[in-house]
């Protein structure tokens, strides 16, 4: 689990430790692998991002979710960025769960440390998130 000393020891600077609690998260309940992968992601993408409010392990996520377990994060970028570049960088950083969201104005991204791969996209329609697979199996078309 994460604390300020581990942030310094692992040289994690993609996110300020002091900003984590501003997202609604409990830093001590976040798995360190999440931030080491997020650090690698930052090195690859070279574009500043921020953790969205309730984007870590806050109480708004189900107890069965990777967020609740301290293994997931939701981010967005300050400037517009191509979603495919973000997807490629997330794979290079070894995230296995990747979600790409479009709220009608801006993309946001979900990354997690699940054991198996999972990729999806979602967009907001009439206030409801509509989910689908990021890739379709051509054998099923």
Structure, described:
The protein is α+β, with helices and mostly antiparallel strands and 141 residues long. The chain is 24% helix and 25% strand. It has helices at residues 4-9, 17-20, 32-45, 83-92; strands spanning 49-51, 72-77, 97-102, 107-112, 118-125, 128-133. A six-stranded mixed sheet has the order 1-2-4-3-5-6, with helices on one face. It is globular and about 50 Å long.
| Arrangement of strands in the largest sheet | 1-2-4-3-5-6
The quaternary organization reads as: single chain
Shape: globular
| Helix content class | 10-25%
Low-confidence stretches: none
- Sheet-strand content, in percent, reads 15-25%
How many DSSP helices? 4
Order of helices and strands: HHHEEHEEEE
Rounded to an integer in angstroms, the radius of gyration calculated over CA atoms is 15 Å
User: Whole-Å distance between the termini?
Assistant: 43 Å
**How would you classify the helix and strand content by structural class?**
alpha+beta
Name its key features.
141 residues; alpha+beta; 4 helices; 6 strands; globular
